[in-house]
């Protein structure tokens, strides 16, 4: 906390220095909501594709709320931010926003009235997006069904609740430059880089952040805890058992199951669900770019699977007994494709630096979208005690990866299991 | 001595009592012999024998097939029908109590058992009330009149001076003769040939009342209630291993490791049939898993895939017949608005929550099977044929299972129990299927295609109507052994019987394909396809689900073309006043005319009379469609049902409401997934069904009671109308018609973008 | 040997420690409430409570439950003296085949222990892991609402008694 307050004070000083920059940005004129018919159909369709790549609906839709109507709580280490309503409702949404106002929000992080927006809305990525794409996104959003919904006020700690301070943050971290292209890459990888760095804002979760919640550019996509999940490194030495290739990653990104990697889980599941609905070429481009960032040798695909059903476990190891009685039925012997779990030797969750994802998966399970077929795992919340969870995590890590035990396993399990209600525990770990 | 005499229920089951099971063991067999004594004279008012007796009396006209009264005043009522969770145990008891004028709690009802009850075939087609209910109604009324006649004779008073109260006949002077006294020493083996004696509906005190279900207290407190809960002394547990897909041969199997596993008693192998018996249930499961890994399979039928199944089906040879209207298609008149539509429904499954289960015992040359089969007699015939035994040495006893909704795995599991019990004589063998067995091996409801072409003329008249339906069989139930899956796997294998269609008016594939509306020259053609890429059989409502979905969707499409209100459009063509009543009841309760549209919200209406001869049912529902995801949310649903004389109105509401919600699940979510490799829908994740967050906001059911009218089957009345109402509501909400089931989000989104 | 504490009584079993609780309940203790439905934690028919929280007994090895308080349907009441949730299910006639109902009752009971006045959405979400195939959902929801009234009365009565 001390550190945070120190930083806050530094921020205030910075903000003061930035006063000239900060003096109330002007409000842009409110317009009549444009007639939905006035938008070019192709632009609307293109905008939808971009909205899916940008995963916009995920943050801008509350649980059981209208699509894009906002109000979803976004937990951050600085407090909770509620997403805004981006349907074209004139009073509670962006119905009165001109195209110019929308562009300014995307590039400068300002709302129509000139208020600073928090970078939970990742405009520091959207600066990379070309104006035509921003306009297509505008066309798409302005042709959605307007939903009247006033999101709750943000719940941020002082001084982070002072929006003018964001001017200082922008001065430090906002680089309002469009994507310039990679000089040494082909068109596909370039397209992928454009999508990843821009609308896709993959770094928003996967890049480590500093105390002011800015992404550390020198650790681009090297893994970070976000919203209670560890988003693994997807550049450099990645914690997969088996080397990724472009085709595999494209399948994974589109929400498909892979024998060697499993399926997108946690905060990545909705991303993959959205990407499953965009054209293959976009997903392939993203995949090509990401794979080009990966390094290091990995296991061959035929990594040996240890343990077998029917073999009595070592009854002295409760972790082994739990695996045999609760896990093996799906992870080793499932007669059903949809219940078949990943052979755990392939599990990324067992190879990342924290047991956080494993604990969450065991507690919450894995569920395909409502009514749709897909891989399923039941949640075991309530079934395991803390000691049993620690024993299980320790057993699985040792048995299936041979890596050093997680040093903080007791701690992570205790924090997760004593505060299951939301994602706040995860954010605490981010500090 | 019979098999049962050797059996002892485990101590606990007996002591607990109270639940339904104990009944089955408290009555010794041999009841079919008539009660001893003099034949009883027919009641004085007996009418001459009518040409055909109502309900199942036509097959079993004798009183003692239905009711027995013992000296101790106990009253036992017999039905060949089975409790499937639809509540007939309660409803049939209500009928008996009413007609006999005894307290409801005194009725003991015995359900399907080949050693005790009449052969009423299958408990299916919503026939239980029409058949068994009607038989018990008349038998009960007949018996009561007989008692009055006997009492009049004994007491020397006129029948008119006697009244009946709680199982006794009482004279105006207060003299009293109980049924037990009156029947003592007499036979009830007489023909029920009087249909005039039942009480006036206006005087009913038990029938027509929402009597609480007799089975619910036991079920919600953990009393033994299902065949799954049967625990016989010395019982062992079995599990089966099926081939990875149909037609595969077991090419190699090394059981040495399995034989040594803890608790394993025996691996049972007979041709391609494979199972294992162990002392403990989890031991049997572990042995089954090991057996699955040890078994090597080869060959097998190649399947089409779920994506091209409709084209595939329509190319197979079909038995085509015009079941209604002119031989050749009717051309629309000049200037008419023509509407053409093709509707499809994928394979869907029964998906019982409790996988099929049975217990078998082979002892002293007798084979006894406890099963949740819908038909103890046909199943007995099939099992006897499969194992090469005389039918008389095989006894099938129905014990309730989880809801089956038609021909699911029950009969096949009973056959498993027979094969496994024969392999281990003298010990009761309990077999329960695993989830993947049920999902992959139950017979599915057929994939179907409907093509409709019709027209409305300028004045809004339906000027042509051509309707064609393509379907696989809707009944391949046992009777012949070859219709049992295990019989196809054993080395002395049986071939399945060539399937046949159920003729009109009930129909199978064409059930409810003929419109009930007044439509001139409505032409309906059925293409019955015998060859089954996937095994199909009776799934609740058979072809009616698809036909009502298609027909009632098409009615809305024509109404739209005619610029007419969907309810008005229907009423204008509906003559039967009872049909009109359920339609107007729903329209009023739903406030159809006052309903206000708002973006993304739609309303839908549908009506059908099940089989065009059973219960009448109309449904209205509102839905919200999320434009971004294509997800459908069900709002308020209103239904009305006319089942004739309502025996238990709450039972009717439960059936209609349940059918509506079940149909909503089929309609929104369900599709069996498969390709050349086999069936991939092997569990609830591969075959998702409706969960709580998706059920309608509210469902209200209005029962239109018709005192004195015959019972009309209700159990399958709401599935078709519910599906069509939802489809019509979605079309109303998004302005585009979706004709392919299920109405999954991706499909809805695609339709909205098209 | 593992000692289980079920419905307030202890039970010793020699069964292998990885054996799921369901089979011990049904076959050794002869308790019928928990049902086998899928063995995969997808349908909820096997639901019982461990320390007041719902678990899938088909996937919980008995070794995990030693020393913990297990409650099954039978622990909530009997046919002669049903518990408040069981009574509510009887009153609402909330069953068709009834096979899923024990799991529903256990889940509802666990919810009411946490929140004696849940709203409709909360109830639907709490029951989400449990499948019903007969379409009895609307009645089950009504029964849980009704049971919550009973729970609230009990809670307030207990509160008054303690004052």
Give the gist of this structure.
The complex is a heterotrimer of chains A (431), B (754) and C (163). Chain A is mostly helical and 431 residues long. Chain A has helices spanning 2-17, 19-22, 41-53, 56-60, 99-108, 123-126, 131-142, 165-173, 187-197, 203-206, 246-253, 268-275, 280-293, 318-331, 356-364, 386-401, 409-418, 424-430; strands at residues 73-76, 79-82, 155-156, 224-226, 229-231, 236-237, 294-295.
Give structural notes.
The complex is a heterotrimer of chains A (431), B (754) and C (163). Chain A is mainly alpha-helical and 431 residues long. Chain A has helices at 2-17, 19-22, 41-53, 56-60, 99-108, 123-126, 131-142, 165-173, 187-197, 203-206, 246-253, 268-275, 280-293, 318-331, 356-364, 386-401, 409-418, 424-430; strands spanning 73-76, 79-82, 155-156, 224-226, 229-231, 236-237, 294-295. Chain A folds into 3 domains: 23-173, no CATH class; 187-295, Cytochrome Bc1 Complex, Chain D, domain 2 (Orthogonal Bundle); 318-430, Cytochrome Bc1 Complex, Chain D, domain 2 (Orthogonal Bundle). In chain A, the strands form 3 sheets. Chain A has a 3-stranded antiparallel beta sheet, with no helix packed on it. In chain A, helix 1 (2-17) packs across helix 8, helix 3 packs across helix 7 and helix 14 packs across helix 16. The longest helix of chain A has 16 residues, at 2-17. The N and C termini of chain A lie close together (10 Å). With 754 residues, chain B is an alpha+beta fold. Helices cover 29% and strands 21% of the residues of chain B. Chain B contains 20 helices and 28 strands. In chain B, helix 15 (544-562) runs parallel beside helix 19 (719-734). Chain B is globular and about 80 Å long. Chain B starts with a helix and ends with a helix. With 163 residues, chain C is an alpha+beta fold. Chain C has one domain (2-158): Ubiquitin-like (UB roll) (Roll). In chain C, 39% of the residues lie in helices and 13% in strands. Chain C is built from 5 helices and 5 strands, in the order ββαβββαααα. Chain C has a 5-stranded mixed beta sheet with strand order 2-1-5-3-4, sandwiched between helices. In chain C, a hairpin with a 2-residue loop joins strand 1 and strand 2 (9-13). In chain C, helix 2 (84-91) crosses helix 5 and helix 3 (101-114) packs parallel to helix 5. The model of chain C has no long low-confidence stretch (mean pLDDT 94).
